[in-house]
Design a protein that fits this description.
Elements: E1 4-9, E2 13-20, E3 23-29, H1 31-42, E4 46-54, H2 58-70, E5 72-73, E6 77-79, E7 87-92, E8 98-103, H3 112-119, E9 128-132, H4 133-137, H5 141-156, E10 160-164, H6 175-188, E11 191-192, H7 196-203, H8 208-217, E12 222-226, E13 232-236, E14 239-244, H9 258-271, H10 276-290, H11 300-309
Parallel strand pairs: 1-4, 1-9, 2-7, 4-5, 4-6, 9-10, 10-11, 11-12
Antiparallel strand pairs: 2-3, 7-8, 12-13, 13-14
């Protein structure tokens, strides 16, 4: 099988999660990492690669084993002798909403560009590259430039570039700082995955029309606006091409990775050449399943059952 390569850029952290601080489960998570895991679970026709940096600590070694279990290539990882994996804790309230605490300022991933330069990493040409506002936000402004330059090279070589803003205010020196870099990211992106809350916080966009106008201006050819209860508005080549109505999950236990699973499945479908409407339907089904279970990465058997049953998945032929 000639697989399509999907490179996800960002940080994977130690995740401590639970319903209270006394019983926390340990796993690994990060927005683009989560998306890559779900993309690979949805399609066996994808070669998944994660671009980041880790340490030589115990958690980093456990993460490498987890990558192997998920079928994620470590060819684009750099290693730090002095920095370790970042860590965060997540506690959910009775409605499934999340409360976070982070320990990531000295993580290896925050220095990934410097570490890759030192290692003289030679990145092969990818079919698709996915990055987010979180991956940008953890870097110094100098390293943001280096990251975007690397992405430009991939785009020049024919890669499809996808960007999810995923805004976290604590990573930026105000919304204007984020807006400056988000605009640069969107100018590179062939596919945008904006959320209406992110755009309101960063750009002051109040409506889906505001977001669409902005993304048309920066020449982002394809984008899916995630607008909560309004549903999802899909655009291609300057025109709205689909609207996916909001369908609430029967039970909402944990909203962690809802957007990440959506992104991963959507990109997996588009990388296979499936239509936008089909891709959004699949991604919506995936996110609806993920919020019914605790943690960023749900049990593989639960997700595989959904993937195998959906007509957009290359796994369906295995049923």
């Amino acid at each position: 099988m000639n697989k399509k390569s999907l490179l996800a850029i960002g940080e994977c952290m130690v995740e401590l999660s639970g319903t209270n601080e006394d019983t926390l489960a340990l796993s690994f998570a990060g927005d683009t990492y989560n998306a890559l895991v779900y993309a690979l679970r949805w399609s066996d026709a994808i070669d998944g690669i994660f671009y980041s940096a880790v340490g030589y600590d115990n958690f980093s070694n456990r993460l490498l084993k987890t990558f192997e279990q998920h079928g994620i290539s470590t060819e684009a990882l750099a290693f730090s002798k002095t920095r370790n994996l970042g860590l965060y804790s997540i506690v959910n309230d009775e409605h499934g909403e999340r409360q976070f605490d982070y320990w990531r300022d000295q993580s290896a991933a925050t220095s990934m560009m410097m570490l890759h330069r030192a290692a003289n990493t030679q990145l092969r040409q990818m079919d698709m590259v996915f990055f987010s506002g979180i991956g940008l936000g953890i870097l110094s402004d100098e390293d943001k430039v280096a990251l975007l330059d690397m992405i430009k090279e991939q785009k020049a070589g024919g890669a499809i570039i996808a960007f999810d803003p995923n805004y976290r205010s604590v990573m930026w020196n105000g919304s204007a700082h984020a807006a400056q870099w988000y605009e640069k990211a969107y100018e590179l992106a062939d596919i945008g995955l904006p959320g209406i809350d992110d755009h309101k916080a960063v750009f002051g966009h109040e409506t889906t029309a505001d977001i669409a106008s902005f993304l048309h201006r920066v020449k982002c050819a394809e984008f899916v606006i995630k607008a909560g209860v309004q549903g999802m508005y899909c655009y291609q080549d300057g025109k709205q091409c689909h609207h996916q109505a909001f369908t609430p999950a029967p039970v909402q236990v944990d909203t962690t990775a809802a957007g990440d699973s959506f992104a991963g499945v959507y990109l997996a479908c588009r990388l296979q050449g499936l239509p936008i409407a089909t891709s959004v339907d699949a991604a919506n089904a995936a996110a609806g399943l993920v919020v019914q279970h605790r943690g960023a990465i749900i049990d593989s058997s639960l997700f595989s059952a959904l993937a195998q049953a959906h007509p957009s998945s290359s796994l369906q032929e295995l049923v």
